[in-house]
Amino acid sequence: MSRxxxxxxxxxxxxxxxxxxxxxxxxxxxxxxxxxxxVVQTGGGKSVVLDKAYASDTPGxxxxxxxxxxxxxxxxxxALAARPKEPGHHKLYFLNGSDTMTEESKAEFxxxxxxxxDDRLAAEIVIIGYTDRVGSxxxxxxxxxxxxxxxxxLLQEKGNLRPxxxxxxxxxxxxxxxxxxxxPNPNERYVDIIVQ
Amino acid sequence: MRIRSLGILGCAVALTLASAGAAPADDAIxxxxxxxxxxxxxxxxxxxxxxxxxxxxxxxxxxxxKAASVGITFTDNSMMSLGSNSKLALSQYRFDATTHVxxxxxxxxxxxxxAKSGQIVKQRPEAMHISTPTALLGVRGTEFVVxxxxxx
Lengths: 196, 152
Hints:
The complex is a heterodimer.
Chain A: H1 2-15, E1 23-28, E2 37-42, E3 47-50, E4 55-58, E5 63-66, H2 69-75, H3 77-81, E6 88-93, H4 103-118, E7 122-129, H5 137-158, E8 164-171, E9 190-195
Parallel strand pairs in A: 7-8
Antiparallel strand pairs in A: 1-4, 2-3, 4-5, 6-9, 7-9
Chain B: H1 2-20, E1 28-36, E2 39-43, E3 46-49, E4 55-57, E5 61-64, E6 69-74, E7 79-82, E8 87-95, E9 102-116, H2 119-123, E10 128-131, E11 135-141, E12 143-148
Parallel strand pairs in B: 9-10
Antiparallel strand pairs in B: 1-4, 1-6, 2-3, 2-5, 5-8, 6-7, 7-9, 8-9, 9-12, 10-11
């Protein structure tokens, strides 16, 4: 409860002061058009749920309503323009027993992965390699690490990596493949690339 | 004695890297992805410039000047960006990358904020709070903007 009190303390103090800051909250549709929600609680114990596109509340006045989308874009233009790029998630596939990509993934590296990374001024990139269950555990651990390393090297050689980009790699071998031991499966010869 | 001094040296190096924001520190909660104009952070009582690539930590306060802005992505993929003359305190942040359980509490005391919730809220709605001088916001997802008007 003390945590709730700590949060409410400024709001309560504000209720007794004249000329308090006037706050505005507006819920926005996300890039997929999905609308979430924000619960607005004020010092008086009232709470308002905003869960429609551009639903808006001014807690000081307790007036909920709907904001004009164009006004929001204008009023919040600086903060909206400063939004970071969405985190990216990519998957690239490899040839059997090799750290060479399939032709399809080679193309995808150029068109999607490289461009995603090149666009970023700062990012933490994690590359994790995997294998199918053909071969020994040790060989597959090594191969999975080599797959991850090969993508890192390719990004360093061909990409336009800014100083704020950090890449870490790891290999999980055949551990995450649910197939029976010795089963060849092209879908399990891949790396996951998480760009944040 | 030798080991101890090495330990201290290690600490000093780690601290230097952390304050410079050059290396990812284990307890970093987010990274600056965009920055324009004068952006500063109050980190452990010290006011330092904040630039693209720098990391931010729990208890840091982020401040933007006139005509400045900043955008930060946190480890749970939530994102926050501030317009000019804004001040945001990152009061509490915890995130378990495996279970996605966490809390994220911040205080916007002035300015404008655009935010998008991440894994913490996906795992447990309203585990992210933003307080302003007049309200406590419980975030169910995903994108929203907040403005706190300064006293004039």
